[in-house]
Specification:
The protein has 96 residues and is of the alpha+beta class.
Length: 96
Protein backbone atom coordinates (compact mmCIF):
# COMPACT_ATOMS: atom_id res chain seq x y z
CA UNK A 1 0.00 0.00 0.00
CA UNK A 2 1.37 3.38 -0.96
CA UNK A 3 1.49 5.96 1.84
CA UNK A 4 -0.21 8.61 -0.32
CA UNK A 5 -3.31 6.44 -0.76
CA UNK A 6 -5.86 5.91 1.98
CA UNK A 7 -6.25 2.45 3.44
CA UNK A 8 -9.34 0.75 2.01
CA UNK A 9 -12.18 0.53 4.50
CA UNK A 10 -13.37 -2.86 5.74
CA UNK A 11 -17.15 -2.53 5.60
CA UNK A 12 -19.32 -4.58 7.97
CA UNK A 13 -23.05 -5.04 8.34
CA UNK A 14 -25.23 -6.55 11.01
CA UNK A 15 -25.80 -10.28 11.11
CA UNK A 16 -29.51 -9.44 11.10
CA UNK A 17 -29.21 -8.12 7.54
CA UNK A 18 -30.26 -10.38 4.74
CA UNK A 19 -29.82 -9.98 1.01
CA UNK A 20 -31.69 -7.05 -0.55
CA UNK A 21 -32.45 -5.47 2.82
CA UNK A 22 -31.79 -1.78 3.35
CA UNK A 23 -28.93 -2.20 5.79
CA UNK A 24 -26.38 0.34 6.88
CA UNK A 25 -22.73 -0.65 6.58
CA UNK A 26 -20.10 0.62 8.99
CA UNK A 27 -16.30 0.75 8.90
CA UNK A 28 -13.60 2.08 11.19
CA UNK A 29 -11.64 4.84 9.55
CA UNK A 30 -8.36 6.55 10.45
CA UNK A 31 -7.84 10.05 9.20
CA UNK A 32 -5.70 13.08 9.95
CA UNK A 33 -8.09 14.03 12.75
CA UNK A 34 -7.92 10.61 14.37
CA UNK A 35 -10.28 7.64 14.34
CA UNK A 36 -13.81 7.90 13.04
CA UNK A 37 -16.73 5.68 12.07
CA UNK A 38 -17.80 5.61 8.44
CA UNK A 39 -21.38 4.71 7.48
CA UNK A 40 -22.94 4.06 4.08
CA UNK A 41 -26.10 2.66 2.52
CA UNK A 42 -25.50 -1.06 1.97
CA UNK A 43 -27.87 -1.12 -1.01
CA UNK A 44 -25.91 1.63 -2.82
CA UNK A 45 -22.25 1.08 -1.87
CA UNK A 46 -21.02 2.33 -5.25
CA UNK A 47 -22.71 5.71 -4.79
CA UNK A 48 -19.70 6.93 -2.85
CA UNK A 49 -21.87 8.62 -0.22
CA UNK A 50 -20.23 8.05 3.17
CA UNK A 51 -21.09 9.65 6.49
CA UNK A 52 -18.09 10.07 8.80
CA UNK A 53 -18.61 10.39 12.56
CA UNK A 54 -16.16 11.21 15.33
CA UNK A 55 -16.01 8.74 18.24
CA UNK A 56 -18.32 11.04 20.26
CA UNK A 57 -20.69 11.33 17.28
CA UNK A 58 -20.71 7.53 16.88
CA UNK A 59 -21.59 7.07 20.57
CA UNK A 60 -24.41 9.62 20.25
CA UNK A 61 -25.70 7.88 17.12
CA UNK A 62 -25.72 4.48 18.85
CA UNK A 63 -27.49 5.93 21.89
CA UNK A 64 -30.20 7.38 19.62
CA UNK A 65 -30.59 4.07 17.74
CA UNK A 66 -30.94 2.12 20.98
CA UNK A 67 -33.52 4.65 22.24
CA UNK A 68 -35.64 4.11 19.11
CA UNK A 69 -35.12 7.61 17.73
CA UNK A 70 -35.01 6.28 14.16
CA UNK A 71 -37.76 3.66 14.44
CA UNK A 72 -40.57 3.91 11.95
CA UNK A 73 -43.96 4.77 13.42
CA UNK A 74 -46.40 1.85 13.56
CA UNK A 75 -48.50 1.41 10.45
CA UNK A 76 -52.17 2.32 10.77
CA UNK A 77 -54.30 -0.76 10.59
CA UNK A 78 -57.75 -1.97 11.51
CA UNK A 79 -58.76 -1.48 15.13
CA UNK A 80 -58.20 -4.49 17.38
CA UNK A 81 -61.09 -6.92 17.73
CA UNK A 82 -63.26 -6.26 20.76
CA UNK A 83 -62.79 -8.55 23.70
CA UNK A 84 -65.17 -9.29 26.58
CA UNK A 85 -63.06 -7.09 28.84
CA UNK A 86 -63.59 -4.12 26.52
CA UNK A 87 -67.35 -3.85 27.03
CA UNK A 88 -68.80 -2.25 30.17
CA UNK A 89 -70.65 -5.44 31.15
CA UNK A 90 -67.61 -7.61 30.65
CA UNK A 91 -69.43 -9.47 27.86
CA UNK A 92 -68.66 -9.31 24.18
CA UNK A 93 -70.90 -6.94 22.28
CA UNK A 94 -73.40 -8.63 19.97
CA UNK A 95 -75.50 -7.26 17.15
CA UNK A 96 -79.28 -7.57 17.28
Amino acid sequence: MRPDRPTPLRWRRSGYCQTNNGCVEVARSEGPGGPSAALRDGTLPESGAVLSLTPAGWRSFLTAVRAGAFDRPPQAGPPPASSPASSPSGRAATRP
